[in-house]
Amino acid sequence: MASLRVALLGCGVVGTEVARLLHEHADDLAARAGARLELAGIAVRRTGRVRDIPGAGPELFTTDARALVERDDVDLVVEVIGGIEPARGLLLAAMQRGASVVTANKALLAEDGVTLHTAAEKHGVDLYYEAAVAGAIPLLRPLRESLAGDRIKRVLGIVNGTTNYVLDRMDSEGSSFAEALEEAQSLGYAEADPTADIEGFDAAAKAAILAGIAFHSPVVAADVHREGIADVTAADVASAQAMNAVVKLLAICELSPDGQGVGVRVHPAMLPRTHPLASVRGAYNAVFVEAEAAGRLMFYGPGAGGAPTASAVLGDLVTAARNRIGDAVGPRGSWYADRPVRPMGETVTRYHISLDVDDRPGVLAAVAAVFAEHDVSIETVRQRAEGPDDAELVIVTHQATDDALAATVDGLTRLDTVRAVLSVMRVEGE
């Protein structure tokens, strides 16, 4: 049986699992790929660290990643170091030399995926990245291949396990945001610095990749409207519960009503408990796809972790190896539609607004007049007395543009009878 040589860039949690599985499942992988997959080398920052990886002796480790990817005997390159540079330069060098590439680098793909795809096509090699968006969940290949004959209208997903764990604990256990985050860190679901997750940067990068594939248009992370979950309060969660809803951080990619543009956004939202995504618990991920002919599809599973992510990497590696043996290449990047990303203000959505107001006659009429002024229709109103002359007013709107809703909230802050806007959150899933 022929052999293909694999260069592994990075040997952290995911890289270690990739190396381990390559060794432990060597015979099965060879049978599936049509060639034995042999490690040619592993690029690391420091070689002195002891790494207990079966089949990976010290002679395999190197700190010279550039020399490794440029070796003539390397057929396939796996990149799991993350970040923009040196990863971009290394992958471009590998493809220029004729090696196919498998990467889990969501940040790089969301910033410069078009360049990578262009290089892969120019040099006749593969570029696969299933592990970049939702860990072990088979998602990108179904979007890119299985649904290639359909028209995708919307992708709605929970694509960050850290934030889903935090919000789930706030909902199910009544934990505060700080308590839930601390617990996530203690269990390894959140980094010591959780900014990328909590502020939505991780989810925004994944949303850009999903939108680009789903709508055949170049989308970068900077195009994505992004809001994190740091401002979600116990009161927000309680308000959602009162509506039989749950708060989730959602990545939403959708065609505009006229089909000429795309909207891409990441933000917390209230989701009815009847929606399939509402039942996604803990650190799990799930993505809900709406297609014109196929209808509604849902993909669910572990979205992070060494072994699940390595599973996706190896799936791509086997596919790239098969193509190499068969002298073929996989699907190319598809940007033919080239739809522009619409501003967030044009997005049609709904709002849940909680107000601290004076409890006296005429307040509701004044509030309703502000909604009418901006052509925003009210769906429901709830009022609860908070004190002798103080009340909480909770309003859920019908659909309107985000600009109109934002202007409505701004107008409410100017009313003398509104003491404070306690919270504003979008409502999705209906």
TrEMBL record:
Pathway named in the protein's UniProt entry: Amino-acid biosynthesis; L-threonine biosynthesis; L-threonine from L-aspartate: step 3/5; Amino-acid biosynthesis; L-methionine biosynthesis via de novo pathway; L-homoserine from L-aspartate: step 3/3
Keyword Metal-binding belongs to the record: no
Residues given in the record as NADPH binding sites: 106
Entry keyword set: Amino-acid biosynthesis, Methionine biosynthesis, NADP, Oxidoreductase, Sodium, Threonine biosynthesis
Positions annotated as active site in the UniProt record: 206
Binding site for NADP(+): 9-16
Binding site for L-homoserine: 191
Cofactors demanded by this protein: a metal cation
Domain ACT residue range list: 352-426
EC supergroup of this enzyme: oxidoreductase
Family: Belongs to the homoserine dehydrogenase family.
Name of the protein in question: Homoserine dehydrogenase
Source species of the chain: Jiangella mangrovi
